[in-house]
Amino acid sequence: MKINKKLFRIIQSIVIITIFFIAFKELYKIFIDIDISLFKKYADKLTIVNLLIIAALGVISYIPLSFYDLVTRKSIPIDLPIGKVYKYSWIASSVSSIVGFGGSAAILIKNHFYKNYVKDKSELTKENLKVVGLNLSGFSLICLIYSIWCFFTIKEFNIVFYASILFGLYIVGVLAFSTCKCIKDKNKEAYLINLKIMSISILEWITTILLIYGLIVILGIKVTLVQFAPVYIKAIIIAIISMVPGGAGTFDLTLLVGLKKFNVQSEQILLLLILYRISYYIVPLLIGVILYITELYNNTNSEIKELMSRINSKIASTILTLTVYITGILLIFWIEIDISKVIHRSSIFKINILDFALYLSIVLGFLLVVLASILNTRTKKVYYILVTSFALITLLTMTVIKSFTSYLVVIIGWLLIILSKNRFYKKGFIYTWKSAMKSICSVLILFTISLIVNSPSYSQLNSLDINSLDINSININFNSEEFNSEEFDLSKIDIEESKAYVERIIISIFLGVIISISLVIILLNINRFNKFPKEKLNKEKIKEIISKHGGSSLAHYVFVGDKYVYINDTEDVFFQYQIISDKIVILGNPIGNENSFFNATREFYDLADLYGYTLVFTGVDINIFPELHDMGYDFMKLGQEAIVKLEDFSLAGNKNKSKRQAVSRIDKAGYTFSIEEPPFTDELFKELKDVSDEWLNGKKEKGFCVGYFDREYIEMDKIAIVRNAEGEIKAFATIMPMYDNKTLSVDLMRFKDIQLNGIMDFIFVNLFEYSKENGYEFFNLGLVPLAEVGESKYSFIREKIAYQIFINGNFIYSFKGLKKFKDKYASDWNEKYIAYKKESSLVITCIQILKLLSQEKDTSDKN
C-alpha cells in the first residue's frame, strides 16, 4: 500500500510538471510576440480609481472562501471566537490558492491551526475533506446553467458543452445523495450544513466570475458575457484537471487562446491575466501573510515581540526609503507628454499648467532624493513633508503623468506612508555632514545623468530639418488612439517650441539641483534649533547624589561646569555630557545608585533618541558592559587608567634608584612640598595663577575630561604646592577626590620653567606619602588615552586607525609621554572603553570625541 501511494505521488508529480511545462512553452510562444509598447499603452489607460476598484473586487471575491470554516466551527465545534476562525481561514485559503494540489494544502494548514481547539482531530480532517469535496458545487451549478442555456439557445454541442454537462451533474448528484441520506438518517442538521457549504461555494464562484468579467469591462475588452462564459468554463475545467497550483499556465493559456478568437489583442489578455492574478491571488496572499505575522506576534513573548518589531521596523524603513528614492528618480527621468494634447495646439509649449507640472515633477524628484536621506530620522516633521510631497505627486499623476507605473508607485507609496506613520515619533533630528554629503553626491550624480540624457535630444532638435522628415522614421510614442500617421501633418511640429521644451527640462534640472542643495544647507543649519532639554549643573543635587551613593574616578569633573548634566526621574543617578554633531558624549559611567544604572541609562537614551541624538559613552569600565551591550552597544578600548597601590609603594631597592635620585635632586636644590587647605588667600591664588599662565604659555584651557584653572573649582579640595629655596611657588597640583574614601588623585598639575629634572617625580612621591599617611589605599594617576589600542597585528582595522590617532595625537596631549611616565609608578592598569552604537562609525565617533577633547575653553570672564 505504501509503495502504491509513493508511485501515485510520483506519477501525479510527473503529470503536473509535464502539463506545467507544456502550458508555459505555449505561453512563451505567444508572449514572445507581445508588443511591449502596445501593452504599456493599455496599462497606461488605467486610472488610480480603476486600480482601487480592481483591488476591491479581488478582496470581495475572496471573502466567501473564508466562510467555510465558520460552518465547520459549528459542526465540530472549534473552540475559537468567530474573528479568529475567519482569520485562520483566510490565511489557509490564501496560501492554498497559490500552492494548489486540490485543496490538500488547505486541509494541512487548517488542521495545524485548529488541532488544539477541537476534541477529535479526525473529525476536523473529515469536515475539511467535506468542504474540499463540496467546494466544486458552485462551479458545477455554473456549468449546469451554461449547458442548459447552450442546449436551448445557441445549440453549440462541442467539447466544452459535454464537459460542462459532466461537471454540472456533480451538484445534482451531491444534492440527491445528501437528500436521500437526510431522509434515511433523519439528520437534518448535517443536511443543512451541506447546503450551507454548497451555498458558500456558489457565492464564491459567482464573485470570481464577477471579478474577471469586471476586469474585462474595465479594460474595455469587447467581449460579451455569453462569449466569455464558454472560454472561462473551459479554462477552469482544464485548470482543475491539471491540479497545477492556482491553475498557473493552464488557465492562462486556455483563456488567452479562447479570447483571441474574438479578436482580442494578446496584450490586453496579458494585462487581464496579470490583474486577475494580482487581485485574486497576490492581494489576498499579502493580507494573509500580514494576518499570520500579526498572529505570530501576538502569540510570542515580549522579547521576541521586541525583536520582530525591530526587524519589521528595519524592513519597513528600507522599503520606504527605496520607494522614495525610486519615485524621485522616476519624476526626474520619466517625463511623458500625451501627444494627443499637443498635436492640435500650436501653443502647447507656452508657459501653462503642463510646463508648471514639468518644473514641479523634476524639482520634486530631486527633493525626494534628499528627503530619502532623512527618513531614517523618523521625525514627525519629516513625515509631514513626505505626506505633502506625495500629495503633490498624486495630483501630478492624476492630471498629467498618466501611466500605469506611476499609479502603482503612488499606491505603494501611500500604503507605506500610512503603515509607517507610527514610526515617525521623534521631535527633532540632527542632519550630519555624512548625510549631507551623501545627498549632495546623489543629487550631482542624477544631475549629470539627466544632462547626459537630455543634451543629445536638444542637439538633434537643433540640427533638425522639418522638410526632410519622414513620419514613419520618427521614433515617437504617440499615446493617442486618434493619431493616424497618414493624416498627420509634419508642419504642425514646431521645432523651435520643441527645443524650448527641452530647454525647460534642462532649466528644471538646474532648478531642482539648486533647490535640493539649498535644502541640504537649510537642514544643516536647523541643527542649532534642536530643542533637546539641556540641564546645567545643579551643584546641590549632584553633591547630594554623590554623598548618598558615592562617585567615580571621573565624577569630580562635573564641577568643571563645561558640561551638561542629566539627572534621572528618581534623582539618584546622573550623567555628565557634552554634545557634538549628532552625538551626546557621556563622560564615564553613570554616577549614583548602581541599582538604577540600567533604567536611568534607558531613560536618558529614550530622551536623546526623541530628539535625534545618539548616546556615546567614553571612559567607561567593564562594570557597565552588560547594560550597554543589551542596548546594542559595541566597545573599543579608549586607554588605560594607572593605579598605584600605596601599600606596595616604596623607593627602596635598585629598581627605584632613578626615582630616589630624582627626588633627592629636587630636595638638595632646596625645594619643599606642602599641602594647602582651601579657601586660599588672594596672594596665594595670584601666585598659583602666575604658575598656571606660564604653563599655558598663551594657550587656552582644555575641558570636558580635565579641570581648568578657576578659583571656585580648585578651592573644592586641597592643593599640593612646590616652592623653591626662596619660597617662590614653582609648581602645584590640585588634589581630586574619587568619592570612595579609598582613592585619591590629582587633576591640574602645572609648573614654571624649572632647570632641574624630576619635578613631577618629586610631586607624585610626596603625594603618595601624603595619601598613605591619611589612610588612602590607592592613588589614581589618571587615564592614558588610546594606550595599547590597535597595536596587535590581529586588531580590527578601526582600532588600528584609532592607534594612528594615538601615536600622532601629541597635538592634543602627549599621549606617549603620559604612558611612559605613569608606567614608572603604576602597579595596576584599569582599562577604559568607548561604548558606541554598532551602526555608528567608530572612526567618525573617535574623531568627534578627540575634537571635543581638544576644544579650547574660554576663561576670559573668569578669575
Automatic annotation (TrEMBL):
Organism this protein belongs to: Clostridium lentum
Presence of the UniProt keyword Transmembrane in the record: yes
InterPro entries: Acyl_CoA_acyltransferase, LPG_synthase_C, PG_lysyltransferase
PANTHER family: PHOSPHATIDYLGLYCEROL LYSYLTRANSFERASE
Record-given protein name: Bifunctional lysylphosphatidylglycerol flippase/synthetase MprF
Topology with respect to the bilayer: Multi-pass membrane protein
This protein's UniProt keywords: Cell membrane, Membrane, Transmembrane, Transmembrane helix
All copies of domain Phosphatidylglycerol lysyltransferase C-terminal, residue ranges: 545-836
Membrane-crossing residue ranges in chain numbering: 7-28, 48-68, 88-109, 129-152, 159-177, 197-219, 231-249, 269-294, 315-336, 356-375, 382-401, 436-453, 505-526
Gene Ontology molecular function, alphabetical: phosphatidylglycerol lysyltransferase activity
Listed SUPFAM superfamilies: Acyl-CoA N-acyltransferases (Nat) (SSF55729)
Gene that produces this protein: mprF
GO biological process entries: lipid metabolic process; phospholipid homeostasis; response to antibiotic
